[in-house]
């Protein structure tokens, strides 16, 4: 039995470096890519099952092949936690279950 958690995004909606920001953290991230931070996202691997926790990253379709995920778990519906799912919504293939808290407005309240 194997369980791993990988944090794939630990930044806010703007990411780091933030567009137009010249603070020390953003300047360092521009100089050194290891200091860049993507919007919120994590991956849990339990044996052969992969769960995506939040989908803030814009590059899910580049980082993962179709069929990689067994489910998605959303902590809440702010855009920086769900925006990576939009390209997948119109994809072809098996339906992937999405779990999250009850919220009738979903990400509509964020717009």
UniProtKB/TrEMBL annotation:
GO molecular function terms noted in the UniProt entry: lyase activity
Coiled coil (residue ranges): none
InterPro entries: RibonucZ/Hydroxyglut_hydro
Source organism superkingdom: Bacteria
Keywords, comma-separated and alphabetical: Lyase
Gene3D superfamilies to which the protein is assigned, alphabetical: Ribonuclease Z/Hydroxyacylglutathione hydrolase-like (3.60.15.10)
PANTHER family, alphabetized: HYDROLASE C777.06C-RELATED (PTHR42663:SF6), HYDROLASE C777.06C-RELATED-RELATED (PTHR42663)
Name recorded for this polypeptide: Carbon-phosphorus lyase complex accessory protein (Metallo-beta-lactamase superfamily protein)
Source species of the chain: Escherichia coli
Source taxonomy: Bacteria, Pseudomonadati, Pseudomonadota, Gammaproteobacteria, Enterobacterales
């Amino acid at each position: 039995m194997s369980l791993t958690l990988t944090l794939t995004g630990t930044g806010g909606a703007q990411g780091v470096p933030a567009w137009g920001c010249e603070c020390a953290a953003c300047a360092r991230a521009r100089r050194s890519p290891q200091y860049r931070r993507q919007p919120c996202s994590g991956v849990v691997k339990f044996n052969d099952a992969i769960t995506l926790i939040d989908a803030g990253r814009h590059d899910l379709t580049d980082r993962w092949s179709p069929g990689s995920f067994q489910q998605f778990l959303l902590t809440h519906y702010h855009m920086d936690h769900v925006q990576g799912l939009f390209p997948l919504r119109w994809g072809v293939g098996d339906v992937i279950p999405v779990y999250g808290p009850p919220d009738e407005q979903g990400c509509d309240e964020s717009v």
